[in-house]
Specification:
With about 325 residues, the chain is of the alpha+beta class. It has helices spanning about 50-55, 70-75, 90-95, 95-110, 120-130, 135-140, 170-190, 195-210, 220-240, 245-260, 265-275, 280-295, 300-325; strands spanning about 5, 10-20, 30-40, 50, 60, 85-90, 145-155. It has 2 domains: about 5-95 and about 145-160, Chitinase A, domain 3 (Roll); about 165-310, Tetratricopeptide repeat domain (Serine Threonine Protein Phosphatase 5, Tetratricopeptide repeat), CATH 1.25.40.10. It has 13 helices and 7 strands. Strands 1, 2, 3, 4, 5, 6 and 7 form a 7-stranded antiparallel beta sheet that branches.
């Protein structure tokens, strides 16, 4: 172990545990850095909070791409390939770690890193429910503490050395990807590949939401992005209807309706989902709202109401037969 070295930044100390090879690589904007990390409390037991080697997958970040814990970019830029170093970081650098950790844990658990909440960000959820969903992270959020980060630098790829996925794009590139993904999703939907189409729509929505978080809510740029996201979300819901994921359709369309109560297609798709799960009153209410907003939908709604009546009659007859058999 080498002697502790100061990085020349307030609140950071570095100790090299294992020397790397070669020169320190250029860590420029757009470079993808792959590394393992272990996060520990500064207590007597050096309690481990997170460890990527336990998860089995190294971390990847793209430099300059608004990663929430930007101090990691600074730490990694001081390392050689293969180097293992321990960094003590004061609370001025660790305050947002609980939020970052929550996202990383959800990814490791196989859950969506953006939690697939169309209109609620992680920070808003935290304030609404006073919890991140993990007791140790809640404790750190209430009382930020210095942390140890043990980092092992595996690889640095320059922007032209890897295929950039949507999460690795800058905002301008993300917005250019949206119509491409939208078109791919539409094509897959028409071909009957509904599961594959949902992935394209979802990726496009994530691109939009990442950009939208940097705009002021309800300002014109934010609203334009919101409209784009809603269009894609409704396409996503159309796929879910075909996949018989009716309750998820109800959830996402309700999110849109609560924020934008004049979106006709949201009421129409929610009505079809309610009909599929025999929520007769809710379905009739949604279809009625469609007619209020767009009288031109009269023919389509008449057809849906006839189908609803037939489904409810079949369900009632089925229940009647079932209960007769019981008694």
């Amino acid at each position: 172990m080498q002697d502790t070295m100061l990085l020349g930044l307030e609140g950071i100390k570095k100790t090299i545990l294992h020397g790397g090879t070669g020169d320190i690589p250029k860590v420029i904007t757009g470079a993808k850095v792959t590394f393992h990390f272990r996060t520990q409390l500064c207590d007597d037991d050096r309690t481990v909070i997170d460890d990527s080697k336990v998860v089995g997958t190294p971390m990847e970040i793209v430099i300059g791409n608004m990663f929430k814990l930007d101090i990691w970019e600074t730490l990694l830029a001081s390392m050689r390939i293969g180097e293992v170093a321990e960094f003590w970081c004061d609370t001025i650098h660790t305050g947002v770690y609980p939020l970052v950790s929550k996202s990383m844990r959800r990814i490791a658990e196989g859950k969506d890193p953006v939690e697939w909440q169309m209109h609620t960000c992680g920070m808003a959820n935290m304030f609404a429910y006073h919890s991140l969903g993990y007791d140790d992270l809640d404790e750190l959020m209430k009382e930020p503490k210095p942390l140890y980060f043990v980092l092992e630098l595996i690889k640095v790829q320059q922007p032209n050395e890897y295929n950039r996925e949507s999460w690795a794009l800058n905002d301008e590139e993300r917005l250019k990807m949206v119509p491409v993904l939208h078109g791919q999703g539409n094509k897959l939907y028409k071909q009957g590949h509904h599961k594959e189409a949902t992935l394209k729509y979802k990726e496009a929505i994530i691109c939009i939401k990442n950009v939208q978080t940097k705009e002021k809510s309800w300002d014109v740029p934010w609203l334009k992005l919101e409209k784009m996201a809603n269009t894609l979300t409704l396409n996503y819901c159309q796929c879910l209807l075909r996949m018989e994921e009716f309750y998820e359709v109800i959830e996402h369309t309700s999110d849109i309706i609560n924020q934008h109560p004049g979106v006709v297609k949201a009421f129409y798709l929610r009505g079809k989902a309610h009909m599929a799960v025999w929520n007769e009153a809710e379905a009739r209410q949604d279809f009625s709202r469609v007619l209020d907003l767009d009288p031109g939908m009269k023919k389509a709604i008449k057809k849906e109401l006839a189908l609803l009546s037939m489904r409810m009659e079949e369900k009632n007859q089925e229940d009647k037969t079932k209960y007769q058999g019981m008694f």
